[in-house]
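Wait, mind explaining this?

_____
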Amino acid sequence: MSRDLNLLTPTMKEFAIQLQKECTAAGIPIVITCTARTLLEQCALYVQGREPLEVVNTVRKAAGMYALTDSENKRRVTWTLRSSHVTDLTNENHKDDFARALDFAIIKDKKATWDLKVNVNENEIPDYLEVAQIAKRIRPDIICGADWNKKDWCHLEEPV
């Protein structure tokens, strides 16, 4: 998995840079945790929480990912194999193959946190909700995982 903004579509890269600036200005430090993934990496994330640990770690090893513990394998992390993160990272040029999604995390005490109640800027609005609001202000057509039935608060993607 990559954090490289250059693997995003040009418009998504521009959005990511603006999002980081506006979140910082609002007192909410964020870090981009994922831009592009290979299909194998997406498969490894998909089997997590669905398959026995041995199967999950076999797929993760093939994808170049670290092995999970049994407790880490209890949580599903994605609901699809057709992710907007998936791109062909083996293609050196990435000419027409860019990711349309990014994941982010809020930074608190110099560490990433996925606590949905975190409020680093102490303004009584949970930061993950506030980042979604900032994202929609920057780009009204952005798709926020926060709006899905199965919430994915740290996920943003551009429409096709």
